[in-house]
Amino acid sequence: MDWWGIAIILVAGVTVVIYGYVDDRRKTRERDAAMAAPPKRDIPRFEPTTEPPQYLSELEARSRPADLPGSELTEPERADLRTARAAAPGIRAGIPDDRFITDAASGWAVASDPLIALCGEPLLTVRELLPLLTNAQRSGRPLVLVAPAFGADVIDTLAANTIRGKVRCVPVTATADQAAQVTEHTLARAFSHSDLQAGWIPDTSLGTVATWLSERNRSWMIQAPSDTTDAEA
Prior knowledge:
39% helix; 4-stranded antiparallel β-sheet; 4-stranded parallel β-sheet; disordered C terminus; 233 residues; 13% strand
């Protein structure tokens, strides 16, 4: 065999080796990237025609829109709530932040005919909030969230929804015994982390009362006048 034939064979062999090496590296990178990427999964209850989410600046999240109706109570309304509160069951647990106050004169966070969601575990991620916020927004009702603890991002998200008028939210940090009282008087049943992450929010697990009233360290569950009880914790 002539020397040029040997040279061609050597060049072809080296080319094949180099190509195999490069292709193997490419496949390895693609495999590693696929392993590191989050799994592809459909978003529960996502509507393809739904508008994309709107992101707010920190200033916007803390600013009440000028055209949003006020939430301040009249003095007769405050007097009626004080009277109803005296006969309503209550728990020694309240709102964690003044941003949830809806009536500045009294320091109250008031939610009429709310959806009441009871979380048996600390609510630490915004992802867990989304099904509850969507449910409340679609129904046009306030959302009371009772949990052992709330993450800082969760509190900020709930406050932004309240301030911007998207969903009026009342988070309440409660112990297991206090949560049991909420169940007794509102019929709310506790959700787990897996329930919320899966978007499993059956209406039968959400509670309600005529009016939920919270201060920084106390909350009351006010029933309709004909159903008001005499007990208070």
